[in-house]
Amino acid sequence: MTALGVSLLIVGAILILIEAHVPTLGVLGGPGVIALGVGAVLAVLGLGGGIVLGVISALLLAGAAGGVLALTVGKGIAVRRRRIRAGPESLIGHMGEVRSWASPSGCVLVDGALWRARRSMLDDEDQEDLHPGDTVVVDHLDGLTVSVRRAEEWELIR
Question: Which domain holds residue 143?
Answer without folding.
Answer: 88-156
